[in-house]
UniProtKB/TrEMBL annotation:
A Pfam family that the UniProt record links to this protein: ShK
SMART domains for this protein: ShKT
Keyword list, A-Z: Disulfide bond, Signal
Transmembrane segments: none
Endpoints of the signal sequence: 1-21
Official protein name in the record: ShKT domain-containing protein
Disulfide bonds: 32-66, 153-187
Statement: the UniProt record of this protein carries the keyword Protein transport: no
Organism: Mytilus galloprovincialis (Mediterranean mussel)
InterPro entries named in the record: ShKT_dom
Length: 252
């Protein structure tokens, strides 16, 4: 619909002059909006092949696919500089939105793997939930990735998970880069071997199922009930067998 309107506008401008272009420019301005509210969080590469069709549908304003030139006013013709400035400004159509914060809204982004960061089926979800982990923020908001030997890409602390991903950026970046660089993804570490798929304790089935799904107990469950919770190959989440009494939550 919008493309047809713009094409018609172009034809009529050639026929009847700039007056019609000025009138239709206001209409095009109103129609030129993004379907998605976070287009600004993508870089300009999202506006080009092979994503052009997707960008036309979802981020036409951000990508500049419906620009309309308006005639300059008297004030814009005083100097060449102001004229150029006005011409550039006339191409900015639609509402201006601010960039989303460069943070993860989930604490478990790493369990989904990097594939969710590039798969078009999940890109919208990743941009909302795991922006920092997927490095989908503007370049000036991203912490740099350190290029070092994988052998040196290790955490000084063995409890980095306890601090959470929030400790990897902002005011804590320097500390995190020194103490938890692998956990925070600041470098590519050595390949890790998956731990044995077994339960350290024999009474995992007696705990409520929440120990396998709640972030509060995730680290404890991975350490003690890895197989029971299905965190490894060969594991399966199991309920409490009939005739047994459920145990209290870990640490209680």
């Amino acid at each position: 619909m919008l493309n047809s309107l713009l094409l018609l506008s172009s034809i009529l401008i050639q026929t009847y002059g700039q007056a019609f272009g000025f009138l239709t420019g206001n209409i095009a301005d109103a129609l030129c909006t993004d379907k998605m509210t976070n287009c600004i969080s993508f870089d300009q590469g999202a506006c080009q092949d092979p994503y052009t069709a997707w960008a036309m549908e979802n981020c036409r304003h951000f990508c500049g696919f419906c620009q309309v030139n308006k005639p300059p006013t008297a004030a814009t013709t005083s100097t060449a500089a102001t004229t150029q400035s006005a011409t550039t400004a006339s191409h900015v159509i639609g509402p201006i939105t601010s960039a989303l914060p460069c943070v993860d809204t989930r604490t478990d982004c790493d369990i989904f793997g990097k594939s969710v960061c590039t798969d078009q089926k999940y890109i919208a979800w990743a941009n909302k939930s795991c922006r920092l982990y997927c490095r989908l923020c503007p370049a000036n908001m991203l912490p740099p990735i350190t290029t070092i030997s994988p052998a040196l890409c290790v955490d000084k602390h063995d409890d980095c998970k306890q601090y959470g991903k929030a400790s990897c950026h902002g005011a804590y970046y320097s500390w995190a880069n020194d103490n938890c660089r692998q956990y925070c993804g600041f470098c590519d570490g050595p390949t890790t071997v998956e731990p044995p798929c077994r339960n350290k304790i024999q009474s995992c089935y007696r705990y409520p199922g929440e120990i396998c799904t709640s972030d509060k107990y995730k680290d404890w469950a991975e350490e003690n009930c890895n197989q029971h919770c299905g965190f490894c190959s060969g594991g399966s989440t199991a309920g409490t067998p009939s005739g047994t009494t459920a145990a209290n939550y870990p640490g209680k």
